[in-house]
Structures are given as C-alpha cells and as structure tokens.
Amino acid sequence: MSEAKISVTFEQDHDRLDALFTSFQERKRKDFAQAKEAFVAFRFGLQRHIVWEEDVLFPKWEENSGMAEGGPTQVMRTEHRLIRDCLEAIHHKVQEQNPDSDQEEQRLLEILKAHNMKEERILYPSIDQVISAEERAELYRAMDAIPEERYRTCCGSERS
Fold it and tell me: What does the pLDDT look like over 1-59, one tens digit per residue?
C-alpha cells in the first residue's frame, strides 16, 4: 500500500469500487457470469474498505481527535451496517441469478453517495490532519496485515 495521504488512498478506492459496481450493473442483463464476477470483486472490496475503516482508521482518528462517543465515526459505523444490509440483499439476487436488483442497487447507491461524500469531504481530510507521517505508515501496515478472512466472507463462508 502506498504512503499517500489517507484521503487520496480511500477516495481512489471509492472510485475503484464505483467502477466495479457500474460494471456489474451494465452487465447483469447481458452477461450474468461477468456481472457476478464484478459484483463479487465489488462486495469483497467494499467489505475490505469497511474493515480498514472500522478496525484501523476510525480507532486512530478517535484516539487522536478525542471524539469517539457520538462523533462522526459512530455515524459512519451505523451507515456501514445499512451498506452491509444492501449488499446482502443484492447478493441474494446474484445467488439466484436474478438481474432484477434495481431497487436494492438504488438504495445502496443512495446510501453510498451520501456516505462517501461525508468521508471524502470531512472525515478523511480530518484524519490526514490529526495523524503524523509515522502514524500514517503504521495505519497502512495495519491495513495490510488484516487477514482476508475478515472481509472475504459471504453468508458466513468464503463462497460467492
């Protein structure tokens, strides 16, 4: 992982995830196998992104800023639960090879749009301000050290 600012790394990951989800949406009625591949990559990537935030970034920000209870990271965690629920609803449709997941996708996109905007405009820049270069390097090492089993799960298993 690079030593770039947290805001740069996480915004780039948002863009990468957005592209995977768009690929899923564009392909689900044309080539379901390719659409499923894109969705699986999206889901695992988004789950990893959330684990990075909840296990590494948020605790460090809370420690350095002194804002834990009732702060922005608590709101982000609540939104992460909503995001996971939406992912699971779409996942069930993908398992059934049912491309009619437009309503679930719309709900996910609505949540992600507002969520990502708060992270990109407020939280990530704030994290960059309250951590040192050494702490940033430590955060990246901690993210790299998270085992895949933490985010490569699906319905309690590694199956897609």
Answer: 567 999 999 999 999 999 999 999 999 999 999 999 999 999 999 999 999 999 999 99
**Any idea where the domains of the chain sit in the sequence?**
6-150
State in Å, rounded, how far the first CA of the chain is from the last one: 26
CA 108 to chain centre: 12
List, in sequence order, every beta strand (DSSP E) within the chain.
none
CA separation for the pair 86, 103 (Å, rounded): 10
14 vs 20: CA distance, rounded Å: 10
CATH of domain 6-150: 1.20.120
7: Cβ contacts below 8 Å, ≥ 6 apart: 120, 124, 125, 127, 128
pLDDT in tens, 46-71: 999 999 999 999 999 999 998 877 78
pTM score, two decimals?
0.91
